[in-house]
Predict the 3D structure of the following.
Amino acid sequence: MSVAFDGALDDYIQHLRVERGLSVHTVDAYAHDLTRFVAWLDDEGALGQVDEARVAAHLVTLSQAGLSARTQARALSSLRGFFRFLVQEGREPLDPTELLEGPRLLRKLPALLNRDEVVRLLDAPSGTKPNRIRDRAMLHTMYAAGLRVTELTELDLGDLNLEEGFISALGKGNKRRIVPIGAHARAALVEYLATVRPKWARPASRACFVTARGKAMTRQGFWRLVKRYATAAGITKPISPHKLRHSFATHLLDGGADLRSVQTMLGHADISTTQIYTHVTGDHLHKMHERYHPRG
């Protein structure tokens, strides 16, 4: 199979960005995987000559380089998407990845905070200092709506409907979903929007969460805040913003929410992605049974 890479990669990246509407981070990951493959082909003197054996050999080199099974699987997924695109565009007759299988992945249960830890984390930015009012609003909003960190930092004022208690989140693939928030998050947002944002935000800014310099809060900046408040709250387990999302999902299921509703609130396209949380809930129920059942 002779592949004309000249221009094909650029066209595919443009397709991912514009037609598929994937996030910048996802597109960058695909581009990294594909350019690494092209560079490897060039080193092998096989640029343009691609078949199933060459793709498999490339995956072997990734394994030999010590890259994780997850990274290898993502590389194969990137290549598979690229070659399917070429076939669909009529540029190539065959997909050399069609029969290849990626490495088996052990699916890890998502780490989460228990209810007490969540309360301590949300209460950590107490007081009336402007940055603490903003941080309190961000933490409450993320947990209340189960947002991804990018969804949180990219919220703008038009995404908020505080009268009705809803947030419109822009998720993966530029898909929007409406998520309800509770009274605590609404109160924290109202306080921040009334007392802090008007003083910090630039006149033309639509970003919901801003820094004291008027710029939109970044993913990295929020990650540092979460880590600092977790330390202040005495939480010793590894922490990340995504743990609040995991905790949101698990606590809903523990409380009796149905899987479809949680899937919708999380913005998962496939319910199998959401079902991993049922394992956490099942483990919780098993422990409760052992603790409280007379014959447990």
Notes: The chain has two domains: 8-88, 115-292. The chain has 13 helices and three strands.
